[in-house]
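Could you join me in thinking about how sequence relates to backbone shape in a protein? Label the sequence line and the structure token line clearly, so we can match residues to local backbone shapes. Once you have written the record down, we can walk along the chain together.
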Amino acid sequence: MKTVPNRTFRNVLLCSTSVAALASGCAIQARVQLSAAETLEALATQTSLAVNEYHLEIRESDRQRRLAAVDAFVARLTADRDDDIATAQHTEKLNQALDALRTDADVEYARHRAAEQNLRIIRETATGLRNLGLQSMKVSDTMRTFLTDRLDRAAQGAVPTGE
């Protein structure tokens, strides 16, 4: 294999570097967009897991609170079964507790839906960035890859002349 003389190599290197510098703008932008899309998708996936785990934990907590309210009601009702006024008060307290639990559940559900909507927006943004990155990858990326390969080979030793 023949090698290119130093002067010719230097000229090719300068020309290649200039072309690579011009072509790399799109390539760098595309890589950044694709990396950002990948990062946003990973963020959305992990956040979705956390949001869903939190939602399930809150639902279980609400269930436990509801059971505790009913158990407390039954215990008070059993203790005051002969007192109609106390029984009515206990019933009212149970209704208040259940209303408070329902309000808490509604608030949590609204927060969960808002979090899901935010995750959809993050995923849409990631998809948009990915599409932009893919559209940015053109012939200049192929040229940049070719020139980078040539420059790497040149830095390692000799550049084949093609003969």
User: Anything to note?
Assistant: The CA atoms of residues 52 and 150 lie 50 Å apart.
